[in-house]
Amino acid sequence: MRGARHARWAAGAAAAALAAAACGGGASGGSGSGVLSSSWGDPQNPLEPSNTNEVQGGKVLDMVFRGLKHYNPKTGAAEDMLAEKIATSDSRNFTITVKDGWTFSNGEAVTAKSFVDAWNYGASLKNNQKNAYFFGYIEGYDKVHPATGTQTADTLSGLKVTGPRTFTVKLNQKFSTFPDTLGYTAFSPLPSAFFSDHAAWLKKPVGNGPYMIDSYTKGSMMSLRKWDGYPGTDKAQNGGVDLKVYTDNNTAYTDLMAGNLDLVDDVPAAQLKNVKADLGDRYISTPAGIIQTLAFPYYDPSWNKPGMEKVRTGLSMAINRDQITRTIFQKTRTPATDWTSPVLGADGGFKEGLCGDACTYNPDQAKKLIQEGGGLPGGQLRISYNADTGSHREWVDAVCNSINNALGNDRACVGNPFGTFADFRNQIGQHKMPGPFRAGWQMDYPLIQNFLQPLYYTNASSNDGKWSNKDFDQLVDRANAESDTAKAVGLFQQAEEVVRDNMAAIPLWYQNGSAGYSDRLSNVALNPFSVPVYNEIKVG
Amino acid sequence: MGRYVIRRLLQMIPVFLGATLLIFLMVNVMGDPIAGLCGERQCDTATAAQLRREFGLDKPVWQQYLTYMGNVFTGDFGTAFNGQKVTELMATAFPVTIRLTIVAILFEIVIGIVLGVVTGLRRGRPVDTSVLLLTLVVISVPTFVTGLLLQLLLGVEWGWVRPSVSPEAPFDELIVPGLVLASVSLAYVTRLTRTSIAENKRSDYVRTAVAKGLPRRRVITRHLLRNSLIPVVTFIGTDIGALMGGAIVTERIFNIHGVGFQLYQGILRQNTQTVVGFVTVLVLVFLVANLLVDLLYAVLDPRIRYA
Q: How far apart, in whole angstroms, are the C-alpha atoms of residue A193 and residue B39?
């Protein structure tokens, strides 16, 4: 009886393996190289370039689409991809020429119109695109996407097709680094099929990238195959990728261990202790453009009165970042010493140690500063976070512990958990935070501007604490108008110093992306967005 | 009998409405579902307002409930945030969970009842004691421990099964997850059957049957078991609903894309349409299972046949 049951299981496993092999082999289209399988999460939104703002959907779009620019997977620098030339004389009017010879995988040519139509679609309020604000710098955005009421125009007045391969962009303000933002997926071109049969396109998106979608079963699996006709230089080095949806990254890790999966791009926190022993060199952990901070509710007068900057700086000094990143995150995070990310590089604006003493653990000084500043509002600090994902509870407790130890009062700081991320976001949106709250920031594009303006500019899209400072705003405006990149970066860093002197938000740590892979794969790396560089992976 | 069935069906209506209203209120009270849609950043107000309008979230809750129920009766469960019809999600999730439930119920019936009968007939013997001890262990160990342990041993260490289930989730891949899902209920079924059998073994009709000289096999199956199964049938019947709704832990461990997975995603993303839709169907499953149990009573024991 026992033996019989074993045999049945074994048969089941064998059948499944056969099915998987058949699936992998059947569709690779004779490219000769193997197909790898990789863990995936169910995308939150329909897969449209201007509607995808989370990693899982972005991963697919990055394989299926190429835009005017592409971020170098190693350096993060914005390099020309479909752009032949982006010219400007005043940092406000841009003339863009699209390279010749590019097509979508359905054969349709990529023209200037493919871009202009896609951007107009993305900006239009009636399409509910969650990344619409990316087009907010283009003139006419307020007509196409008004803050209230209905739209009075369907197309952006700042976009004009001037030839089959050229178009012009007029911005509503000077923005010298605008071309460098064009590598973001929201700016991808779209084929006419997207507009003529939208529902069919959503079932099986068609793009112009190194991969095309072979089959897509929502919620469980997507098979991507190498597109042999891809004209770019970054052709896929493998036959394709099967993205499998996992509900739990622990299961994905178990599958990797059992040899059923080739690549896991999110090693679960619980496995970090064993991962080196399990995988050896096949575990990678590299810095990503993600920074965790603690933001403050400046709409609450008790957090916005004079002297509070001392309290905030004191709190920053009371946090032992080094110990927390070592013990809780097993060194997969690096203590932050500025408000950007190491992936920008020194030229891009990352300045190690810009925060200085304010981010160095110094419990005595911390206590002194907090007392000088008038003590904690209400006598107690409540750090809000969402408890559903990302092991936030552990580090919030650790941060509180660190603050309590520095102040010599074990009731000084407590965590304030929210059940779901949606609820947490909702309370932040309604300005109901009772104290500092967790604020993670994943960059949209590797520019120092992206780490500062959306978060700290007056009334900016992600300025959740409603911090406002004239000096900061002026410096950002000047930096955006500056056409010399090095000078612009310098001005942004000056703006960052304003953030430091006021301790607008406490920087905690930079986050690493992590991945583990099977011995079938080689040349696996993560890009600055912590997504595997799929097209460069070699199989076998 | 016919009138009884009709009465029971009519009773289901208020229960159904009450249960769906409750879950609808609970999901809506949790907060603004749109808030979490734009990732770490806040959705811009115009888009958020439009999404809210599109999903009908700008209307008062009672009106939302009425519209929702109106749509449900025409088979329209609304749209999830990723643009898929909730009915489409159900069509992929329910067959998988139903297969998993069938596997689990089969384990409960076959292993549970057999063990129950064996121990009930041999009360106090070593077999009885050891099975009792075993069920105690199974009941006290949480499902996720059993699940992860089996997954690690059978899937990774010994390589007998795949640690995760493929999207198609055929029956043979669901054997281990089904066993894990059934484990706790299985122990209860064993214990229930055992007690019931042991009690009825001393009853008059069994003694009569034995005295008539009926073969032992017939005494056990036709007389003893049939009368002892009533509490067990009740338990298994209500367990169908519990298994379908409560498979979240098992489905997560073995990466099964069933009802539990959809519910988990729905709750995490505060997706009202998905959560309410799935729960509505689960409530129906519960009600129907209960009805079937009550009808089965009448078959098992004519004395409790109504009207």
A: 28
Q: How far apart are CA B111 and CA B190, in angstroms?
A: 8
Kindly report the CATH number assigned to the domain that includes residue A464: 3.10.105.10
Q: Could you tell me which chain A residue has the CA closest to the CA of B82?
A: A45
Residue B286 CB burial class (10 angstroms; 0-12, 13-18, ≥19): buried
pLDDT digits (tens, 9 = 90+) for B78-133: 888 888 888 888 998 999 999 999 999 999 999 999 999 999 988 888 989 999 99
Q: Rounded to a whole number, what is the distance in Å from the CA of B83 to chain A's nearest CA?
A: 6
On chain B, the residues whose CB falls within 8 A of the CB of A15 are 172
Residues of A in contact with B79 (CB under 8 A): none
Side chain identity, residue B8:
R
Q: Which residue of B has its CA nearest to A216?
A: B167
- What is the per-residue pLDDT across B186-221, written as a single tens digit (0 to 9) for each? 999 999 999 999 888 888 988 898 899 889 888 888
* Residue A521 confidence (pLDDT) above 90: yes
Question: Given CB atoms, is A22 within the 8 Å cutoff of chain B?
Answer: no
Give me the domain span that covers residue A453.
288-512
Lowest mean pLDDT among A204-213, A296-305, A512-521, B216-225: B216-225
**Whether residue A200 is found in the same domain as residue A297:** no
pLDDT in the model for residue A32: 46
Residue A345 lies in a domain: yes
Amino acid at position A103, single letter: T
Nearest CA distance, A5 vs chain B (angstrom): 10
Q: Nearest CA to CA, how far is B138 from chain A (Å)? A: 19
Span A61-81, average pLDDT:
92
Give the contacts of B70 (CB within 8 A, at least 6 positions apart): none
pLDDT value at position B227? 83
Q: What average pLDDT does the structure give for chain A?
A: 88
- B-contacting residues in A 406-445 (Cβ below 8 Å): 419-429, 439-442
CA A260 – CA A258 distance, rounded (Å): 6
Structure tokens at A522: 């080689």
Rounded to an integer, what distance in angstroms lies between the CA atom of residue A383 and that of residue A401?
Answer: 12
Mean pLDDT for the stretch of residues B226-250 = 85
Question: What's the one-letter identity of residue A326?
Answer: R
User: Would you call B166 and A133 a contact, using CB atoms and an 8 Å cutoff?
Assistant: no
Partner residue facing B270 (CB), from A148, A248, A420: A420
Token pair listed for A178: 């605008």
Tell whether A13 lies on the interface with B, counting CB pairs under 8 A: yes
CB contact under 8 A, A218 and B82: yes
**Contact call for B156 and A440, based on CB within 8 A:** no
* pLDDT tens digits, one per residue of A349-396: 999 999 999 999 999 999 999 999 988 988 899 999 998 776 788 899
Q: Does the pLDDT value for residue A4 go beyond 60?
A: no
CB A15 within 8 A of CB B172: yes
A-B CB pairs within 8 A amount to 184
**A234-251 per-position pLDDT tens digit:** 999 999 999 999 988 889
φ/ψ (deg, to 5) at B29: -70, -25
Residue A9 and residue B50: Cβ atoms within 8 Å?
no
Query: A45 to chain B: which residues are within 8 Å by CB?
Result: 37, 81-83
Which of A13, A130, A423 lies closest to B162 in CB terms?
A13
Regarding whether A308 and A207 lie in a shared domain, the answer is: no
Where is the domain boundary, A189, A211, A233? A211
Q: Please tell me what DSSP assigns to residue A209.
A: S
- Tell if the CB–CB gap between B40 and A255 is shorter than 8 Å: no
B161 vs A12, A252, A440: nearest CB: A12
Shared domain check, A205 and A295: no
Look up tokens 């049969």; give the residue: A197
Query: Are the C-beta atoms of A116 and A110 separated by less than 8 Å?
Result: no
Q: How much is the pLDDT for B306?
A: 57
- A180 and A34 in a common domain: yes
